[in-house]
Each structure stands twice: as C-alpha cells, then as structure tokens.
Amino acid sequence: MDEFNASKPIYLQLADRINRQIVSKELKAGEKLPSVRDMGIKYSVNPNTIQRTYSELEREGILETRRGQGTFVTEQEDRLVQQREHLKHEQIQLFVEVMQEMGYSSSEMISGLKDHLDKF
Q1: Angle value at C-alpha 82, between 64 and 19, nearest 5 degrees
Q2: 3 is a domain residue
Q3: What is the dihedral of CA 22, 71, 1, 92, to 10 degrees?
Q4: What is the pTM of this model?
Q5: By CB count within 10 A, which of 66, 77, 84, 106 is most buried?
Q6: For residue 5, is it within any domain?
Q7: What separation in angstroms does the CA of 7 have from each of 4, 43, 44, 86?
C-alpha cells in the first residue's frame, strides 16, 4: 500500500485514490464502498478521516450515502463522465506546468508525448 504524502491532507489523498478507482472502473457505478470502520483499518487511519473523505466525495456528487445501507458510488453516469474529464484535465494541466517549468515548448511536449505513446 502506498504511503501518504505529508504535503496534502490524508482525506484528500484518499479521495484521490477513490476517484482513480472509479475512473479506472475498479469501482463501478452503484457499487458499495467498505464501511468507514473497515476503510479506516485498510488504510490505517482514523475512521473520522474516512468519514471526511466520504463526505467530501458526497459533496462532489461522486458518492452517495443510503440511510441504513452504507456509502455507494453514484449511479449518475453523467456525473462520473464529468469527473473523468475533470481528472484528465487536471493531470494534463499538471504535466504541462512541470514541462513548462523545465523549459519545454508546446511542440516539444506534443512530440515527446506522441513518441512515448507510440511505444505502447
């Protein structure tokens, strides 16, 4: 299991992990997540941290809590598609910022990315 980064709150890092699992379809629409307690044990964090993670993702419309049943990935496919696009743009923005800091031009980034993708 990955360690947590000290530069970002743990609940947000857990939210990122859950988002990646949803985008990669490891977690599917309508799928139930582990209980707050079980998730806390899995990641060795306080259950309150997991509750905060779930609350954050619920606020974003990614998760939904069903009274007496638990926490589930939303079944609103349009919201999941929107989140997938958001995460894609976020990663592209991060890539571009790092490359620009190193002095690469747009054409160098595009050709480098194309060369990299052609290898797969």
Answers
A1: 55
A2: no
A3: 30
A4: 0.83
A5: 84
A6: no
A7: 9, 18, 18, 22
Helices in 5-76 by DSSP H: which ranges? 10-23, 36-43, 47-59
Mark whether 28 and 44 lie in a shared domain: yes
Q: 92 is written with which tokens?
A: 């592209």
**Tell me, what DSSP letter sits at residue 46?**
-
Write down the residue that tokens 């980034």 correspond to. Answer: 109
d(CA 103, CA 87): 24
- pLDDT tens profile 6-65: 899 999 999 999 999 999 999 999 999 999 999 999 999 999 999 999 999 999 999 999
Q: Answer whether 50's CB lies under 8 Å from 39's CB.
A: yes
Provide the residue range defining the domain that includes 50: 10-75
76-117: pLDDT as tens digits: 999 999 999 999 999 999 999 999 999 999 999 999 999 999
The two tokens of residue 29 are 């629409």
